[in-house]
Amino acid sequence: MEFIPHDDQTIIEMLRTIGVENINDLFRDIPKDLLIESLGLPTGLSEPDLLKTMKQLSELNHVYDSSFIGAGCYFHYIPSLVDFIINRSEFYTSYTPYQAEASQGYLQAIYEYQTIISQLTKMDIANASMYDGSTALAEAIIMASGVRQKTTILIIEGIHPEYINVIKTYCWGHGLNYKILRIEDLNLELTDDIAAVAFQSPNFFGEIQNIEKLVEKVRLKSPSCLIIQVMTDPTCLGLLKPPGELDIDIFVAEGQSFGIPPSFGGPGLGIFTAKQKYLRKIPGRLVGKTKELFGDQEGFILTLQAREQHIRREKASSNICTNQALCSLSALIYLLSVGKRGLEEIAKQNFQKSNFLKKNLAKIPGYEIKSKNPTYNEFVIKCPNLDALIDECEKVNIMPPLKLTHYYPEMKNLALVCVTEINTFESIKAFLKAANTAINIGGVKDGF
After folding, report:
1. Is residue 55 included in any domain, yes or no?
2. Cα 231 to chain center, whole Å?
3. Contact status, residue 195 vs residue 151, Cβ threshold 8 Å
4. What CATH number has the domain bearing residue 416?
């Protein structure tokens, strides 16, 4: 199809209709220092030259032998079956299941994804997914505000800092108030005017919260307040109690750990589940199963689409316009591949290996474990010289742990260490050796 650009007169008429003087006014909300005059793109290349350039670019990437970094994006084992299935053309080229009669395969895949997530979490409903964990949490907060018709949200410390930033943006856009507080101060803030309490467990620092006690406290002080739990690594559900057994109203998570590689930090998968009574308030869409009007043949349809694409904007519960279908398919195939026992084994290895490293790091002079509660695959440690530890890790081709000053400037020489099932005993020994070597290296460098 030929592209015919608008002529000057048409542009003037459109600008006059929406009440702006020129096209630049359409971008006035963007800070001037972020606007660019030109992309500075190079001239076109022949196919051989392009392939050569792409190969050179790929060789700039550094691949570590092992990783001890997590913080919301994790290296887990991915069965070969996952890539084999999602790269089949009937899945890989599919995008949207709007036409049910032409999309039965993908609709069924999404339906099965919803089913397996509901079974895993023991929650009544799972939607057809959100962008990622952070937007799923923000959407949960907006949903809770709509359910309760209240505008104040309590956020327990320990939620991923990047998720907090997304929450702040959503709350600003929706005119909601939020308060970040310590879990010890929750009783002081709970009233009937609170829409929801949001918390993360295991939290950003890997600590497993006492969810039963938290839920009991909220129900006693504010019975109608919604309780929202978020996770960044739901492989722990192979070991920990699922949210549906803990009276959680809305459970959300980042599903990247379910068969999706870390890549360069994305894409992710926003898992979103809720109790049955909130069915009509859930954002995104739900796929359902039905039967013929005059017959017994089953089929799959989009049962609920509470998005601004499909209904009046003022009645929409969400403006997220994708369901990350390929990523949710990855999660489905991953969970089917490993099965219940496999996920339990993965969770046990994450727990045991991280605690093995934690205990042995604590034996090295100068290292102090700061995590006081039980932890799952991540923990905080104080290092005598964190910069030296990072250098020593890189020397032996180990991706070092997260330097917490990246998010919390006051947390000097504190690191968030992550261990998953793919960390071998040899890689853990190499990390401990790097930690030992770093003790005798003086000097502290600035930066991350």
Report:
1. no
2. 8
3. yes
4. 3.90.1150.10
Print pLDDT tens along the chain (448 aa).
Answer: 567 778 889 999 999 999 998 888 888 889 988 888 888 888 889 999 999 999 999 999 889 999 999 999 999 999 999 999 999 888 877 766 767 777 888 889 999 999 999 999 999 999 988 999 999 999 999 999 999 999 999 999 999 999 999 999 999 999 999 999 999 999 999 999 999 999 999 999 999 999 999 999 999 999 999 999 999 999 999 999 999 999 999 999 999 999 999 998 889 999 999 999 999 899 888 899 998 888 888 999 888 876 555 666 666 667 676 667 889 999 999 999 999 999 999 999 999 999 999 999 999 999 999 988 999 999 999 999 999 999 999 999 999 999 999 999 999 999 999 999 999 999 999 999 999 999 987 544 433 3
Based on the domain organization, do 136 and 154 belong to the same domain?
yes
Q: Quick check: is 31 in a domain?
A: no
**Inter-residue contact 137 to 293 (CB < 8 Å):** no
Q: How many domains does the chain have?
A: 2
- Domain's final residue, options 320, 336, 352: 336
Residues 261 and 361 in one domain: no
Residue whose C-alpha is closest to residue 135's, from 91, 175, 173? 173
* CATH number for the domain harbouring residue 319: 3.40.640.10
Is 45 part of any domain?
no
**pTM for this structure?**
0.88
Contact call for residues 332 and 320 (beta carbons, < 8 A): no
Out of 309, 336, 363, a domain closes at 336
**Residues whose CB is less than 8 angstroms from the CB of residue 234 and which lie 6 or more positions away in sequence, other chains included:** 120, 121, 253, 254, 255, 257, 258, 271
d(CA 323, CA 305): 11
Q: Kindly state whether residues 321 and 380 are assigned to the same domain.
A: no
**219: containing domain:** 80-336
